Amino acid sequence: MLAGQNRVELVYKDGKYSLHCAITGLIEKPEKPGDKLAAIDLGEIHAMAITDSSEALIVTGRALRSIKQYRAKRLASINQAMSRCKKHSRKWKKLLMAKRKLLAKTRRQILDLTHKITRKVTGWCIEHKIGRVAIGNLDGVQRNTSRKKAALKKQKSRKVNQKLSTWEFGKQTQLLEYKLSRVGIQLKKEDESYTSQTCPACGHRHKPKGRVFKCRCGYIEHRDIVGSLNFWRVNKYGEMKPQPTGKIIVKYLRPFVLRQKKVVVPAEPQALPKAG
Ligand SMILES: [Zn+2]
């Protein structure tokens, strides 16, 4: 599909109409794209962490997480209420409607946030004269594991899967690729396994607990920065290449100015009978 200029489209989805307008010029095009390399680490606490090995940007994922937590909570209570009434009854149908509405709405909110996150990252890339960006390819990681390993992994990561669906990863990558390509920056999908467990300074491997990576050699860094820094080196030198590593200048951004109370409006609380 061609994204034409000055294009307006009426789209019907999830039982609602929305008007899609193509607007040019939201991201300022650089005169000439840079040639530096950057690497991205995708995650749950932070939505995206990107580094060029001396500076980094972390876009927090808190807003995304709160939408998902809200969705899970509401879904659970709707499902519970549905299980208590007769299938296909009026009440049951009402609850089903509420469920569909909730899913459609939170999906739109997540998509909107994903747009904002990828826009921030694109802006950072322009500012830092980036020409190429490496991002973890999750398909590749899944394909490369053996079946037995995959089964084990599935067990372990069920919780993680709940938090971050492949749909979201795919959407984040897709939107980022689109936004970057508009300003002449290339996005490359690469395998990123284990990059967050290796110390960038001495190469010692361990699984960090919590958000801070603390190595026995004395190296301390934000865990997400470690992941993206190692990933950056893999893409730069073909290996993680531990070496004396200084502190990276980190900038934190929210995808938008928080108005959390207005982001999620509970749909028809009256459709939900109180427990008991
Ligand atoms: Zn170390």
What features would you describe in this structure?
The strands form three sheets. This protein has a six-stranded mixed sheet with strand order 7-6-3-4-5-10. It is built from seven helices and ten strands. With 276 residues, the chain is an alpha/beta fold. The protein has helices spanning 62-84, 90-127, 138-144, 147-163, 166-182, 223-237, 260-263, and strands spanning 8-13, 16-21, 36-42, 46-51, 55-60, 130-136, 186-190, 212-214, 220-222, 249-253. The longest helix has 38 residues, at 90-127. It has one domain (28-158, 165-257). The model is unreliable at 140-148, 158-163, 262-266 and 268-272 (pLDDT under 50). Zinc ion binds next to loops.
Helix content: 40-55%
Question: Which ligands accompany this protein?
Answer: zinc ion
Regions with pLDDT < 50 over 5+ consecutive residues? 140-148, 158-163, 262-266, 268-272
Domain count: 1
Strand order of the main beta sheet, please? 7-6-3-4-5-10
List the helices and strands and how they pair.
Blueprint: E1 8-13, E2 16-21, E3 36-42, E4 46-51, E5 55-60, H1 62-84, H2 90-127, E6 130-136, H3 138-144, H4 147-163, H5 166-182, E7 186-190, E8 212-214, E9 220-222, H6 223-237, E10 249-253, H7 260-263
The structure holds zinc ion (ZN).
Zinc ion (ZN) is lined by residues 199, 201-202, 204, 215, 217, 219.
Relevant terms:
alpha/beta, 6-stranded mixed sheet, two-stranded antiparallel ribbon, 7 helices, 44% helix
